[in-house]
Amino acid sequence: MSQVILGKTGISANKNGFGALPIQRIGREAARELLRKAYDSGINFFDTARFYTDSEEKIGYALGDVREKIYIASKTMTVNVKDFWEQLNTSLSFLKTDYLDIYQFHNPAFCPKSGDGTGLYEAMLEAKDKGMIRHIGITNHRIKIAADAAESGLYETIQYPFSYLATDEETELVIKCRKYGIGFIAMKALSGGLISNSAAAYAYLAQYDNVLPIWGIQREKELEEFAGYIDNPPVLNRELSAAIEQDKKELGAEFCRGCGYCLPCPANIDIPTSARMSLMIKRAPASIYLNKEWQGKMKRIDDCINCGHCKSHCPYGLDTPELLRKNWRDYKTFI
Ligand code: SF4
Ligand code: SF4
Questions:
Q1: pLDDT at 47 exceeding the cut of 70
Q2: Other Cβ atoms within 10 Å of 214 Cβ, number
Q3: How many angstroms is it from 317 CA to the middle of ligand 2?
Q4: Where is the 4Fe-4S ferredoxin-type domain (predicted)?
Q5: What are phi and psi of 185, to 5 degrees?
Q6: What's the average model confidence in pLDDT over 272-291?
Q7: Candidates 302, 305, 326, 327: which one to mutate for ligand 1, based on the most atoms within 8 Å of Cβ?
Q8: CATH fourth-level superfamily of 3-244
């Protein structure tokens, strides 16, 4: 299955969406080349955000002339109506377009609804009425807010982290979205770098016909890998199923997803990476994390004052300080 219909939006996109957060890290021309190559390969869904610095501008520069042939989803982190309009107008101008296919509330701390006093959802409705946006979406990392959005009947798409490491509750959210005709956009389908088998990641998500994975793409090599799945989509065969089972066994349930909800840390510990350092070293090229810079960052774990902020904010119920100490002990054996 190489096409996904995003629920009642009717958007029919290639199953390989382009996550445009990482193009912030490359130059304007390199980004143009990458985006153009993605488009030429058949990728037609691009997800960006006002918050991703110049990502929107680069998309407008690279794909402004083919606007009608692609879908663009952007996001706003605004908490007030004045900024809502300012940000929407800025996004449209940078993207060189007069409409967004999907406009999403970007990871809000609550699910905006009509009559909640913020005026945010009403602003979305007005933008839709004016033709500035075609569909209303929301992104979140917290299962409760995503589930609230699904139940509310107010959102046409929900963007949430989903991979083969998902919990049962997260899988239920996907099934619920399908039932309600809500398009499901899957972020972190490689679980923030923990999953290295992209074929298994793709094949797992291909089981869900309402799920559109957006792959964070920064390099041509990554693009080629996902673009290759357009003509030859990996199928969940015995070999890939075994790889998934092995991964799940290795990671268990108690691993840090790198979502960052535990931040800020008063001891300035880079929790999202430090709390899963042992896994990253074993699963990604270790040299990236063994340099002086990371040695310094990991040493900060000694400065933890046990304030409890991280533990109380972790949506996965992890004992974060203990997990950090465990990773620090393990890290020292590598250096
Ligand atoms: S408990 Fe430690 S690691 Fe967690 S937020 Fe507080 S100082 Fe940072
Ligand atoms: S410790 Fe929890 S909140 Fe912090 S990054 Fe990891 S999964 Fe997210």
A1: yes
A2: 24
A3: 9
A4: 294-326
A5: -100, 120
A6: 88
A7: 305
A8: NADP-dependent oxidoreductase domain (3.20.20.100)
